[in-house]
Amino acid sequence: MNAFECLGLAIEFRIDSKALRSAFIQTQRENHPDHNALGSDLSEQSNRAFELLKDELSRARHLLELQGLDERNFPLSTSDLMAWMELGEELEMGSAESEIEGLFAEREGQLTAWKEQIIGFGAFPFEKEENTILAQWIQGESYRRRLRKIQRGEQEI
After folding, report:
1. Do 85 and 147 lie in a common domain?
2. What does R_g of the chain's alpha carbons equal in angstroms?
3. Does residue 36 surpass a pLDDT of 70?
């Protein structure tokens, strides 16, 4: 399923949340089983598409999937991987909050730089270099989310 096509949206990383919601509501109006006896499957698809596209991380993964790719095809650099591991170790050791926040700020700065590049990508499908940046952002954002959960005590190391 191409979630972008399902909701009639352009295939790109940046999506205006209001436009996404509007496209979802319109699709539901047209395909909801209460209004269209044949629309049950389309209504389910639009629900899945909306859930997938409203989260940047799942949207980025979907962009790779649409090209037959997976973020694991593009490993993080050793230095990036080591930086995330260091942050995890500092959390595990219970280091000072200021030190942990400093490490998060460094990593989040890199994520922001990658995200700004992703937003500026040209037409879909993306070039290899663009997919590499997209995959690096996906992996880094996954680490960031996991480590923030650990920091908040919502997840074990």
Report:
1. yes
2. 19
3. no
Provide the number of structural domains found in the chain.
Answer: 2
Give the angle subtended at the CA of 13 by the CAs of 151 and 62, to the nearest 5°.
80
Query: Omega into 33 within 30° of 0, i.e. cis?
Result: no
82/147 same-domain check: yes
Domain that holds residue 87: 74-151
**Pair (84, 141) in one structural domain:** yes
> Counting runs of H as helices and runs of E as strands, what totals does the chain give?
7, 0
Percent with pLDDT over 90 in the chain? 84
- Flag whether 157 is in a domain: no
The answer to whether position 69 is within a domain reads no
CA angle 115, 116, 120 (to 5 degrees): 110
Q: How confident is the model at residue 37 (pLDDT cuts 50, 70, 90)?
A: low
**What is the average pLDDT score of the chain?**
92
Within its chain, how far is the Cα of 136 from the centroid?
A: 11
Flag the least confident range among 3-17, 37-51, 75-89, 143-157. Answer: 37-51
